[in-house]
Amino acid sequence: MVGVLSVKKQLLGILFGSLFVLGLGMWDDKYKTSAPVKLLLQMIAAYIAMDYGVRLSGMTLPWGKTYVVFPLIVSQIITVLWLIGFMNTINLVDGLDGLAAGICAIAAGTFLIVAVLQGQTHVVLFSKQLKLAGVLSAGLCGAALSFLWFNFHPAKVFMGDCGALFLGYMLASIAVIGTLKTTAFFSLIIPMVVVALPVLDVIASILRRMRNGRRVFEPDRGHLHHQLLRHGWSHRETVLGVYVVTLILSIFSILLTVFKGKV
User: Fold this and answer.
1) Do the beta carbons of residue 45 and residue 51 sit within 8 Å?
2) How many domains does the chain have?
């Protein structure tokens, strides 16, 4: 089940799913898809990846060596929520020139280092998945940095939903086949730590909109980067400040990986 064929299938699933997400983003950028329809199409994209083996099927409990296999429906729900969560987090945080691209570059670079570190400490069973995660992370990091060259303030090229959804989908998929495929409980924490700042910002935005009686996906100017701008930070200072915090969280996640490997 875990081998060359499985890795090829996972790669195909990520490829087909990402192309579907690209199409969704391009359509939404031009015609503005409604939130329910967009959510449904994101679920389809997640199921495309799952059909090819990109899923979290179980977890080793932190207080023992017992491996718990998730029922199929639980595995599907967790994976769909994971993929959709990443896609919408990156999409919602894309509010300033270079912000989403920089965060994704840092996250992808961190996933690459984590995949290399875990490849040195885990059994051969997961080595092919970790290699695939490393290659995809390197490619995604390079692509995000190349795009950032033209997207940093003042931007010459803009990301839109097309780019943001694609980057979120790729990061989520890499996390599933890389860090999460090792099945350790700590592996679930690592990718969440890397993107903790935008995730918390999105959660705060959702709660704020619900409290104000607004639609969850309705855009507003209450995000962290908007708050910093209102407090006198310049565009570049705000973006670079978020970079620094994300980089610190990334270093912490790498240290978690090193610590986990020695336990």
Assistant:
1) no
2) 1
Whole-number Cα distances in Å, 167 to 19, 39, 114? 12, 16, 18
pLDDT digits (tens, 9 = 90+) for 102-146: 999 999 999 998 888 876 655 444 567 788 888 999 999 999 999
Task: Look up the pTM and report it.
Answer: 0.88
Summarize the chain as % helix, strand, coil (round to 5).
Answer: 75, 5, 20
Domain of residue 209: give its range: 4-262
3-state secondary structure of 218: coil
Structure tokens at 200: 């918390």
87 in Cβ contact with 168 (< 8 Å): yes
The tokens of 176 are what? 């599933």
DSSP letter for each residue of 117-145? HHHTTS-GGGHHHHHHHHHHHHHHHHHHH
Both structure tokens of 28: 């939404």
